[in-house]
């Protein structure tokens, strides 16, 4: 009996992550900035915002349309396609959650600085 072996994950990585137009544009801009040696601070902020907090619901068609969810799914798999131990899954999810919260906090602080000390604190929420 001829059994087919599972394909290696590394060969299919490009097909696994799906980016919307905004995310693709930001990735291209970041790639160009890297090649040209430009500063990446603002570009990285824009990329993280587009990936972590997309402007539209990217998971409406499929849960795996989110690069973050796709990444979590990949870290739950071994190279041979089997699942990793259930005890190894929570730490990376916690790290991603921490990074998302840290990025959100930095964004909120930036908005607060733009508003200034005398500004209407409710104005930036609308």
Portion of residues in beta strands equals under 5%
User: What sort of overall outline do the alpha carbons produce when their principal axes are compared?
Assistant: globular
What share of the residues lie within helices?
A: 40-55%
Major sheet: size, sense and barrel closure? none
Order of helices and strands: HHHHH
* Whole-number mean pLDDT: 79
Q: How many individual β-strands?
A: 0
Unreliable stretches (pLDDT < 50, length at least 5) are 1-13
N→C terminal distance: 64 Å
Radius of gyration based on Cα positions: 19 Å
Number of helical regions = 5
- Helix/strand class: mainly alpha
Q: Structurally, how many domains make up the residues?
A: 1
Features:
126 residues; mainly alpha; 5 helices; globular
Describe this structure in words.
The chain is mainly α. It has one domain (18-125). 53% of the residues lie in helices and 0% in strands. The protein has helices at residues 13-16, 21-36, 41-52, 67-75, 90-115. It is globular. The protein starts with 12 loop residues before the first helix and ends in an 11-residue tail after the last helix. The model is unreliable at 1-13 (pLDDT under 50).
Topology:
Elements: H1 13-16, H2 21-36, H3 41-52, H4 67-75, H5 90-115
What would you say about this model in short?
The chain has helices at residues 13-16, 21-36, 41-52, 67-75, 90-115.
